[in-house]
Design brief:
Structural class: mainly alpha
Strand content: 5-15%
Strand order of the largest sheet: 4-6-5
Radius of gyration: 27 Å
Order of helices and strands: EEHHHHHHHHEHEHHEEEEHHHEH
Shape: elongated
Length: 362
């Protein structure tokens, strides 16, 4: 605060860097102020229903924003206020309970990733189409996005598949569509772009690629390659007994204990000293040693095919993954690309189903 003389008998007070905080009470006031703009479009007969629906959105949105560090500050952002008005209009226009959750997730996503203009554009368009997207199209879009986006990190095949089975049990919250009409519906809404010349990869291909640390043949036990692998690890100060594990998909073989080959870059050694865990990243030489062992994996095509068959047998034992595979097989002979609009919409819906999912990556 700076005080300047304005005259003999008066003072002029100049306030610099004034920060206005937004608490829950003020956030709800701003919410109501913005709704006063949105509700001008409604007749008296429609207003009662609109009020109830917009209140549903408010009750879902405010607690989520409070849970974000400085989340309520977004209510002071003109860009967010404009988006809020559009979200209120969409809420007023839809009778689906799920849409209020979805709109609140989209607004939260805008706060968390609003500096990214790809995200901002996607969120704005997604808010507009929430009321238009059909139930089955939203479900199908979310499932496809989840297949593309979420991968378990546990190095055990059964645990990894169990995690996926649990996830898709939550994501597939309703019966999956039997026809493919939802694809054209999403294309009309700009959520996907159809590619008549492409073709979807199979579930087997997608997940044996994503889980390429698990879905491998590995090294034959007690073979020359096995002895060489143990020597390589030992020479680089690594305990081969804890790094080379039995391949559950073929017990006659061993493999490096990782879920995905890319994880080699983030491997660490954990030492327990006086009850405290000390984490030491692998050195470059140790990472290269692991890569050298992976190069010793069998490349026999017959063994690889058998490994994939066993992997899919394990996949199909799990009810939700079984359902996903059978549905995926019914996809048309063309493919589609999920747009930024579709991604934010599907991701928001997925996070509505499973709160622990990571943020959307571009």
């Amino acid at each position: 605060m700076e005080v300047q003389k304005a005259g003999d008998n008066s003072q002029q007070i100049q306030i610099k860097n004034l920060t206005i905080g937004i608490d829950e009470k003020r956030a709800r006031e701003i919410y109501d102020e913005k709704y006063n703009i949105a509700k001008n479009s409604f007749t008296e007969e429609a207003l009662k229903i609109a009020n109830e629906r917009v209140k549903e959105l408010e009750d879902r949105l405010i607690p989520k924003m409070e849970a974000i560090d400085n989340g309520l500050k977004a209510f002071a952002d003109p860009s967010f206020q404009l988006l809020l008005v559009e979200a209120q209009k969409s809420a007023a226009a839809t009778e689906r309970e799920v849409d209020y959750d979805l709109l609140s997730e989209l607004l939260v996503h805008r706060i968390e990733r609003g500096s990214d203009r790809h995200v901002r554009t996607g969120v704005h368009r997604a808010v507009e189409i929430v009321e238009d997207i059909s139930d089955e199209a939203l479900l199908a879009l979310t499932v496809v996005h989840s297949v593309n986006s979420f991968v378990p990190t546990l190095p055990d095949v059964n645990q990894a598949l169990d995690i996926l089975n649990d996830l898709f049990g939550k994501i597939m919250y309703s019966e999956l569509p039997k026809s493919n009409d939802w694809i054209e519906h999403l294309d009309i809404l700009d959520a996907v772009r159809i590619n008549q010349f492409g073709k979807f990869k199979s579930i087997e291909y997608i997940y044996t690629t994503k889980l390429n640390g698990i879905a491998v043949v590995g090294i034959k036990r007690d073979s020359e390659e096995h002895n060489r692998a143990k020597a390589i690890l030992q020479e680089n100060g690594l305990n081969f007994d804890s790094i080379l594990v039995e391949n559950v998909l073929n017990p006659d073989f061993v493999r490096i204990k990782i879920c995905n080959i890319e994880e080699v870059e983030s491997l660490r050694i954990i030492h327990s000293i006086n009850g405290e865990n000390i984490v030491i990243p692998f050195s470059d030489a140790q990472k290269q040693a692991v890569r050298s062992v992976i190069e010793l994996y069998s490349k026999d095509s017959n063994l690889i095919d058998e490994m994939k068959r066993v992997f899919m047998n394990e996949w199909m034992k799990r009810s939700n993954l079984n359902k996903l595979e059978l549905w995926w097989e019914g996809f048309p002979s063309y493919s589609f690309h999920i747009t930024s609009v579709g991604k934010v919409l599907a991701h928001a819906n997925a996070q509505r189903c499973e709160k622990r999912l990571p943020p959307l990556k571009w």
